[in-house]
Amino acid sequence: MPRRSEMKEYRLVACRVETRHRNLLSRWYGSSSIQKALEDEPCTAAYLRRKIAKLISSDPFRDGQCAVILEMNSRPIALVHFMWINWISRTAEIDFTLLSEKPRGLVLGAIAIDKVAQIAFEEFNLRKLYAFIYGDNRRALRFLGRYMHVEAVLKAYLKRGRRYEDTYVLGVTPAEYYAAVGRHYK
Amino acid sequence: MFRPAGAKEIRDLFKQYLSPTYEPFFVDISGPELLMNFRDFSKYCRQDAALWISAQDETIEGFFLLFDIQPSLALANFDIVYFSGFPRAGSVEVAALATALRKACRQTRVTRLQLLALAREREKLTLAAALGFRREGTLQQHFFHKGGYHDLIVLARMERGRDAS
Inter-chain contact A40–B158, Cβ cutoff 8 Å? Predict the structure, then answer.
């Protein structure tokens, strides 16, 4: 895990996905590697248009989802999509993807995930975040495994060609997150 | 004997669904948003879910539901309710239920069923095991119900041929 002093050099701003992000999202979602990591099946152009429109209009209180772009010096570096926000159980599923390679991976990931935790636990007052990670996405499993723990392995969940892949469900509570990063939960 | 539900049974279920103290079987039935009118709920039950009931002399004994059916993944969430206690493993009722479940899976082209159950729902867990569900993990402190947070046990049942990698 990167040192906090390394992370302090960078300042992130979170903004809700808006119409001005449409081209960025189209470009980014057009990438097959992103589709493979986030979507259950190959996406059609119409599906992507609908998905992006949904991200732009997302409202955590109306449809239980909220899409956020994390920016560093006005440069988008990550997309966070809170889904299935359950205001009774105070849980949400997240899709989290880095859009940039700089600054170097782990630091960027750590400051981005810190922002995700801040939004989820200190602003939305959620009690738990969880993520579905496809078994073939080893990088995401390794990275998120530093902050979240595996709660379930869904066997043969995802169809990849003729094979089925397992999917991992990872979860984290505020107390677990702040213990993992060595900081007290306010 | 289980059979696909008719309009009246769907209406009965809708009344329970709208109850402010809804039961765990409605966990994420169609997403985080409740379907607040009967037309949407009925449409959901007919088009995006499969609701089967068991009734005797017009009294509903129980029902099972395949919901959030995802055709591209050939999977669905599953839940089951018996109003006067679950049948015992190995009984005729369980055999009939297993047959109905296989039929519902064939009709919906689903080969993986997922069930979320509270740890304290022992009868349901026993029944699930008898139906071939296997435990895949525990979602900790995942569900708020009746004043407290509860773990949800994840179980799944797969049709033959859907092997894990």
Answer: no
Q: Please indicate if any CB of chain B lies within 8 Å of the CB of A154.
A: yes
Q: Which two tokens stand for residue B3?
A: 């059979």
A150 contact B CB<8A: yes
The complex's ipTM works out to 0.86
The residues near B14 (Cβ < 8 Å, ≥ 6 apart) are B38, B41, B42
pLDDT single digits (tens) B97-132:
999 999 999 999 999 999 999 888 899 999 999 999
Question: What are the Cα distances from residue A124, in Å, to A58, A176, A186, B11?
Answer: 15, 17, 14, 35
Which CATH number does the domain housing residue B10 bear?
3.40.630
Q: Give me the domains of chain A, ranges plus CATH numbers.
A: 4-180 (3.40.630.30)
Residue in chain B lying closest to A176 (CA): B140
State the pTM of this model.
0.86
A183 against A164, higher pLDDT = A164
Nearest by CB to B144, from A40, A88, A135: name it. A88
The residue range of the domain holding B75 is 2-113
